[in-house]
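seq:
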Amino acid sequence: MPPMSAALPTGPGHSGPVPTNQLATNLPFLRRYARAATGSRKAGDALVCATLETALADPAALDRMASSATGLFAAFSVLWNTVDPQSAQSTDVVDQPGGSQLGRMPPLRRQALLLNQLEEFSLGQTAEILNISEAEAAALVAAARDDITREPVVRVLIIEDEPTIANYLEDIVRLGGHEIVGKAATASEALAAFQQYHPNLILSDVQLADGSSGIDVVDAMQHTSPVQVIFITAFPQKFLTGGGREPAFMITKPFREETVRTTISQTLFFGGGDG
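struct:
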């Protein structure tokens, strides 16, 4: 993965120069994936820590994890399946009324979708991580994408100071079948729109046009009324640190339509994501 920059790719699946500290570079993305797959920041972080602790006792495993993102994610998947074999192999559908299509997917299908669409691993890399064939990975992702087309409709507020990006997000959300209730470029506009339209979901940039923080604006909104939020930033490593104010759901710029749709489904199913 290239060093952090304005052109930072959206996930660890991108190829590029390998930095000296590959493991440290990829760990924030593994935490994001672990949270997405388990539905809990606490559970996801515990599994990531257990993965690292296991590797410390096995120099060869540590070397594989440090040498590539696929090695790190594969080690996590092996441990998760050892702790909970049903997490990846079960074909049972989650029965959670009101949950999104992501939550209703068989777990292995959900993992393949998140690896390929959220973390942007290729189908070959996804297959390697899950220890399945590339054809199986392709079939799982295709089935998962079809599932998401049946997502329940929600009301969405977009907070983004770049008009081109705001319009692109609006197009993605509308094509996903959801309703856009408003767009805002500043903190004051965002707060006014929130009070007027009472959205179910917010897509928010981190740095707004008036120099304010999208995280601070959303904090103010949530003191008024709970709302689900997805933050959008070019620098996810700055926020995926394990700190107290770490956003639960985050999309990296530049983003793809599939990434936005998958993250929306993830957010609607898992809610706050901090359990």
